[in-house]
Amino acid sequence: MSLPKASLQRPRIIKETERLVADPAPGITAAPHDDNLRYFDVTIQGPDGSPFQQGIFKLELFLPEEYPMAPPKVRFLTKIYHPNIDKLGRICLDILKDKWSPALQIRTVLLSVQALLSAPNPDDPLAPDVARHYKENEKDAQRVSREWTQQYAS
Amino acid sequence: MAKVPRNFRLLEELEKGEKGIGDGSCSYGLEDSDDIMMSNWNGTIIGPGHTVHENRIYSLKITCGDRYPDAAPKVQFLSRVNLPFVSPDDGTVKPTLLPVLATWSSRSSLETVLVEIRKEMASPSNRKLPQPPEGSMF
Hints:
Chain B: Keywords: Ubl conjugation pathway. Chain A has 154 residues and is α+β, with helices and mostly antiparallel strands. Chain A is 36% helix and 18% strand. Chain B is built from three helices and four strands; from the N terminus they run αββββαα. In chain B, strands 1-2-3-4 form a four-stranded antiparallel beta sheet.
């Protein structure tokens, strides 16, 4: 006898959520909406040593029906000056696309997004103008990233 | 069934719209490309052939509130048009007079709204209605 698919998936989402709340990753919070347990309010603290240091960035995360066979959908709600994040907060990160594996979790995704703040990759840009700025004058681009962090993320 | 939250639903619609929908007779996009809440949209309808609307290009404004897609979007013509479901004063589409809005379902989308309006333009009762000068705006 086989169980319906939903009843196998649900415990994974609940287990992940319980662990996120009980044992949060440093600098990261994630809380599900009361009326939609697949939809999370997320905050990520800008990593020390990055231009995003001391910023608190708001994000939203959604686990689609196919999760964990398909990756979570994640987006920044706080404006951020970063070559791999566009004006609508969409993130260019391989594990959110073709490098997704069901072995990854919400926690690993959010840690990867946090790591992306420390390691912008202007060679794989989502915001071409920001990437050009980072390539041509990294110091000046970081200054703008710091200004935006102060203006929008604190 | 997982319920897709408003913002992720609108992101999907945006990406679909950017790729281009159908035969290109209807299109839509964000009014302001950094509108993080994705509330204000522009729509375009190319008037259906063999009607008074043929070759005309109609601009519309579509507003998605906090409760979209549970609640229908607000739709307004920016281009002047004479249709029974459009206010002659400011171009507002009267939701009770357009079936896709009157019987709104969260399965409907910005695309279906524009496609349904275009179908109405070509309906037997609307296709020959006298129209204001081409290109005039509300």
